[in-house]
Amino acid sequence: MDHSRVAADVLKGVGGEENVKSVVHCMTRLRFAIRDDAKIDKAAVKAIPGVITTAEAGGQYQVVIGNEVPEVYAELGKISGLVAGTQTTTVDPDEPKKNLFNRFISMIAALFTPLLWALAGTGLLKAFLSAAATFGWIATDTSTYLVLNALSDAFINFLPMALAITAARYFKASEWTSFAIAGALVYPTITPLVGAEGLTFFGIPFTMVSYVSSVIPIILIVWLQSYAEKFLYAKLHSSVRRFLTPMIVVLIAVPLVFVVVGPVSALLSGWLGEGIGWIFANVPWLGGAIMGGLWQVFVIFGLHWGFVPLFTLEFQATGQILLIGPVFAAVLAQSAAVAGVWVRTRDKKLKSLAAPATLSGFLAGITEPAIYGINLPLKRPFIFGIIGGALGGAIIAIGGVFSTAFVVPSGLALPALFGNGNMVFLGLGLVAAIVVSFLLTVILGFKDPVDDDAPAAVANNDLEVRSPLDGTAVALSGVSDPVFAGGVLGKGAAVLPSSGAVYAPFDGVVAAAFPTGHAIGLRHADGAEVLIHIGVDTVKLNGQHFSMKVESGQAVTAGQLLIEFDVDAIKAAGYDVTTPVIITNAELYPEITSQVTGPISHGEPLYLAKSVEAVALAK
């Protein structure tokens, strides 16, 4: 399907952007709120290649697309103002139901996803350049080195500017206003002010910290920007709000970062640095464990800057830096964890990203692609890296290992530690950090993401679909929605539920867990894709009375609870709760047989989906 062409043709067919009040999408349909129905060319919309059919219900004009509706919806966002940003990064309405940690990880993953390949590519280039300089293959005082260093280092250096764009899409703020804010944070005349004394803004004293390569400050300020823009657009007159809004936002946001975020960050990181410095002086192994285990966490929140003055002071006083030794364990542990992902994952995209992320992490200490693109979103590899780093850092600290130079911890920078302290403990610490993180990732594993671009498997076996609900099995033709009843979206059956629980009808993977909880898509290992849609038009409840118990990409087993819902409350709200259970990729399973009707319990056979091979043999 040409998603962009379908989006353009549909928008034209419904009377253009000016005829649309709003548009949302559910599992299979674009749902338009229309200003003037007379302006819709209904015949033209139905005739668009890629449109399965149309329907009108509940004051909405519904364009049925099928499984690829999210992509078409995203293209609508690119050609109109109906959708803020694109579907690549968007706020998940279900996120408030998650705990704070999972919400944070989901946000980081969404913001970094568009940046990962650039991060991985430039990080790998930086690793190769560092190796060339270390082994004397290129002189660092040449213009060639300066050019290569700039093009390999610039993206990470100006990371806040890239994050400004993805954060703006995520929080539905103005991208270029966000870009202007980020540009101010890393502006050439601002960065030299880091650490300077006596700084004021209209008489308000502030401390300048480095925002180069930072993550949290720009995300926080763009989040606030999104609310400020909504307020200003509502209050300012239409004749001036387009230019006054960005002017006011930038004027407030940038000083707010400098005057509030900077000092708070400096204060917290200073306390953190001094506290760990005290621990190192009194309980070295504990200090090493904290530095080795949590250094990457400090980096994520920008708290690592509090250690830079300690590194400098220690070096000036003694000519050595004890605190930096365990950081090598932290960096190599996260690199080893992503190497474990590289070895274990079956996802081709993840494997291809893990390869350069591993090399850049081990060689040059560039861990951003590994952490933000892989370890943190997958959760468990990041935790395994923390465990390995803590163990390795403790061992290195016990050995009294120190650096004789201020270096970026990496494999290529290890010579800075050689001969300084107990080398046996250095070796043991590094081996522990790498081996523990790697083995934990490979052995204990993680949840592989679903590769939505992977081609569907060829169905060689018939698939028995068991009932996901308790209730009464009915023919699909008995569903009140003509799109489902007519088998337009796929063949199958329906269940009139007697209780509010949906269970997995087979072992598989959650291909799509819709945020409102009213529908879920499952993928069987043989390639079958089954849609379970609770009720008719229940997307309008916007998640009320539904509770999703799984998430996209999660492996599930037959009989596992997927969704809970309140049958009586949904009925009381005026909705039909008859639930279609359909095979959406009919090209693999073109026939349905052995369909059951009447009382049924979850786990009992509902129907048999005949594979394309079986159908062909029968003919």
Secondary-structure-based class equals alpha+beta
Number of helices: 20
What's the β-strand tally? 20
Describe the global form: globular
Q: Beta-strand percentage? A: 5-15%
Helix content: 40-55%
Radius of gyration equals 28 Å
Contiguous low-pLDDT stretches (5 residues minimum) are: 85-97, 451-459
Write down the overall mean pLDDT. 84
Order of neighbouring strands in the sheet with most strands? 15-11-12-13-17-9-8-19
Q: Quick one: biggest sheet?
A: 8 strands, antiparallel
In whole angstroms, the N-to-C terminal distance is 30 Å
Give an overview of the whole structure.
The chain has 20 helices and 20 strands. Strands 15-11-12-13-17-9-8-19 form an eight-stranded antiparallel sheet, with no helix packed on it. The relative contact order is 0.08.
Provide the fold topology.
Blueprint: H1 3-13, E1 20-25, E2 29-34, H2 42-46, E3 53-57, E4 60-64, H3 69-79, H4 100-112, H5 116-134, H6 143-157, H7 159-171, H8 175-185, E5 200-201, E6 204-205, H9 216-235, H10 241-282, H11 284-300, H12 308-318, H13 325-344, H14 348-364, H15 368-378, H16 380-398, H17 423-444, E7 463-466, E8 471-475, H18 482-485, E9 491-497, E10 501-503, E11 508-513, E12 519-524, E13 529-533, E14 546-548, E15 555-556, E16 561-565, H19 567-572, E17 579-583, E18 591-593, E19 598-600, E20 605-610, H20 612-618
Antiparallel strand pairs: 1-2, 2-4, 3-4, 5-6, 7-20, 8-9, 8-19, 9-17, 10-16, 11-12, 11-15, 12-13, 13-17, 14-16, 18-20
